[in-house]
Description:
280 residues, alpha/beta, Rossmann fold, Arc Repressor Mutant, subunit A, 2 domains, five-stranded parallel beta sheet, elongated, disordered C terminus
Amino acid sequence: MGAPANPTSQMRVAEPIRVLIADGHALFRQALRSILEAEPDFDVVAEASDVGQVLSEAGRATPDVVLLDESLAVGSVGHTASLLRGSVPGCQIVVLASDEDDAELLAAVEAGVTGFITKNVGLGELLEGTRLVHEGQALIPPTMLRTLLTTLRERRLREREALLRISQLTTREREVLELLASGAKNRAIAKALMISPDTARTHVQNILGKLGLHSRLEAAGFARQTQLVVDAVADGMALRGQVPPTRANRIASGGAGGQRPRASIHEPHDAITASNPSVI
């Protein structure tokens, strides 16, 4: 009869959560490191005191979770989070905010951040929130959740309304609208589309009438804010059997070789739904 199995050896030991602490204050980093390393399921693999160090250390240590102090961000926390996710796509980000800033939360969520927590919470909440984010859940302060969901819902409604308005345009008018978004004048539009300036002017007037706008400036702002022009043009060109434009930016400069200009318009974002007041 063989020796009895060792129950401990049969237990599946989970890998600790690999954490990068990104904060500009050495004292805070050291204190948080001590707290995390006292927990059996955390392993602090790196620290960073500025954005450059965050990116380099994240690439080197490949953490599961980055605890990112919002004051460390260059520009918006969303921009820094985008750079970080581009460097280490698999990592999750928990933003440590000084207070409840709805604009910063929205920018962070748009950049793919799944955790947003203020520094006035207790350590237990921070630890549990980090575990939840690592498990694939999203963590948002309950007091900020309603505003976030309302903002995203209103944005989606505006985008749907804009798409309906854009659908009234012909394929050529959509191309002209895309060029308007980059600030192109009639001559630049004519050169880019190989049409006459008078025809370009007529297209612009038709666009303003169909969209219920009063100026070229309004049309350009409409195109940029709805973030749908590139998709609309791509769909229209695909229907004509042409190669759709890339998502690179088009600028109405009449480039060499007949290449079309490129303008910067991003994709719309989906709304987020909640399963409970704090985890979405």
